[in-house]
Amino acid sequence: MGLHDETQSNLQALIIMEAHKIEKGLALPKPRSGFGQNAISNLVTYIKKYSTRFGPDKNTQIGLDTLLAYYHFHENHGHGNDHLRTVIEGLALLHKQNICESELGGTISMDKAEIHSHSALNIEAFLNSRHSIRQFDPKPVELTLIKRAISLAITSPSVCNRQPWKVRVLQNSELIKKVLDLQNGNRGFHDQINLLLLVIGDLECFVSISERNQVWIDGGIFSMSLLLALHSLCLGTCCLNWSVIEETDSKLRELLRLPDSEVIIMLVAVGHIPERICVTKSTRKPINEVMIIDPPIENIDNGIK
After folding, report:
1. In 10 A of CB 206, how many CB atoms?
2. Dihedral angle sign, alpha carbons of residues 212, 218, 224, 229
3. Which of 22, 109, 154, 264 is the most buried (most CB within 10 A)?
4. What is the pLDDT of residues 16-60, one digit of tens each?
5. Is residue 99 part of a domain?
6. Whole-prediction pTM value?
7. How many domains does the chain have?
8. Which domain, by its residues, includes 255?
9. Distance CA 118, CA 110 (A)
10. Does residue 134 sit in the same domain as residue 218?
């Protein structure tokens, strides 16, 4: 998809992208007065287009609130902008919002101590305790747990905060079997899977050929967050790759009626963990084969190898 397609999903991504450019500027140590004029102009244009075609909603609200945060920052530093204020007032009128309100866009203030207090967990034990599970308890997985896990995974970073991910939750046993028949990594335990997740990436969130691989990057980051979130809720998971030929991909698309703009990142089998199970050792590479330390810059400058 591209800049001129301007579907609802595409315009939503454009709004979030331009808003995030402004948010990043506001989050710098010393924001430069008047920064991001192109982003401001683009954001206003996209909000107006989206509102005209689809009506104001949370997406345009994010853009408006980011404009408000930008305006208030400059106003507080003695650089008020009457033209921008007039534009914002017009957009705020569409949202039935006061120009002083800003909740969904801009920046938030956090203390180092607060961040550290929330990261004080035994992450080494947590990560080492996660394994791919191929033995599931027949007890159905509660959708409340899946919803909670996805809500946690949504915090994953993505390019310009565009969040291109979606998750299809399959519970019907017949449909799950049809999907698993198209995937070659579930032999020997497919009959134990009573809930299957499809992580999907939306191509309409991207705007140029230079981002052709971004859907897989963002989708991969989100998938790992989802696995860890499910693990934190004591659910077992097994990643099932979707490395298939075009014909197989087309069959699954037809089966699930997926639009052309959505690509399948991966499948995830989810279930409750039995009291006692076997898992693969899956020995990892030693750190010296993974961590590459570049030589000091002064050695490069001196031609030392």
Report:
1. 26
2. negative
3. 22
4. 999 999 999 999 989 999 999 999 999 999 999 999 999 999 999
5. no
6. 0.86
7. 2
8. 112-272
9. 12
10. yes
